[in-house]
Amino acid sequence: MRTRIVITLLVMLVTTSALQAQLRVSDNKRFLITHDGEPFFWLGDTAWELFHRLTREEAEKYLRDRARQKFTVIQAVVLAEMDGLQTPNAYNEIPLEANDPTKPREAYFQHVDFIIDKAAGLGLYIALFPTWGDKVFKNRWGIGPEIFNQENARVYGTWIGNRYKSRKNVIWVLGGDRTPRNESDVAIWRSMAEGIVTGAGGYDQTLMTFHPQPNDVNDGGSAKWFHNDAWLDFNMLQTGHCRENNVWDRIKAAYDKTPAKPVLDGEPLYEDHPVCFNAKDLGTSSAYDVRMFAYIDVFAGAFGHTYGCHDIWQMNAPSRQPINGAHYPWYEAIDLPGAQQMQYLRALIESRPMLDRVPDQSLINDARGSNDHIQATRGKDYLFVYSAQGKSFTVNTARISGSMLVARWYDPRTGEVKDAGRFEGREAKTFTPPTSGYGHDWVLMIDDASKNFSLPGMSK
């Protein structure tokens, strides 16, 4: 028993120490890396109401389950969306005195501290939203109230940046589902960002982005307003909750901005969500819906992906009124199939050299449309092609190294691999996935045979 306790403590120490140095942007400005230069795959979950609605015991269960499912980042909001200023947390605490951002209440933030630290102990990063955007701009669907101006945004930013400067598992995210209306809104967010940088001790002590509403396809998400700001380390998009969505073009628009910055889809279509907010006519989203956008996003150039679940973001429970037709309590929804399948995307990407991976549609002859889209990506010695409905395609194999190539089919539903043969490189070759039709998505893996890469999820 004593030996088991010692081993458990050592595992916790090793896990925690791995998060004692902040993530940073890679030298090629396309990825995030750890303090020792190892590539980091962002597999996120939108747990917006985590701090606001869960007890410590519930939060720990949620974090343990997501760590078990190989998630790496949890996106959560301090001043929460669902009346986060007036409705208290699970311990009857509200975050601010009299809705004043310059007067944070210690008891509320001790609960936030606990969850951030518990996440670190499980090897999880927290993408920390200091506030949801309705506290800057309420709009018709927000509760608000609007409490921020340039002056108090800087004070609050400085305070919260200083409070969490020693927590190296914190990634800062401003915005919170709001598109700046005008220069005044932009100035408030910039003021909060500069406050965080000041409180944390400088630009090299923060990793930060901005989460907008879906905006025009060519805008590049956060890049529309903040691309050249020193505090914005990577661009974030929200591609929204519809099926007919050319997410690949949206990722590309941000990817192609200069100077280069990493890009991430921070809110795509959630699992079990009313499609386009219209469940009556369009139904609710499936595991296939969220899986398809995940692979397309990453193959189109994103350095990772954020999964979301309609029941999880709101922490739905029998004691709460479901929002927009949520079906399951959060503790059941946590095991929905789409969430379980996200780990196979991470395993695939991590199985090959990550830092030389680029999007490359010149690998294929037909990208097709929004429902049966085909998306390609490659490194120097390998390539992946995702076929959303198992349609055939022709691959230009001369784009990677190797006189002899090995091909395999990867199943995004199970993580299983099927052999697809060996052949000489430098030639175009047509491939037909094992099955086809709606929900029958496949990834073709082609490797330089001389590299002897391991299968996804397995070490060499």
TrEMBL record:
Residues 358-447 form the Putative collagen-binding domain. Residues 26-355 form the Apiosidase-like catalytic domain. Transmembrane segments: none annotated. Keywords: Signal. It comes from the Bacteria. Residues 1-20 form the signal peptide. It holds the Pfam family Apiosidase. Gene3D superfamilies: Glycosidases (3.20.20.80). The keyword Signal applies. This is DUF4038 domain-containing protein.
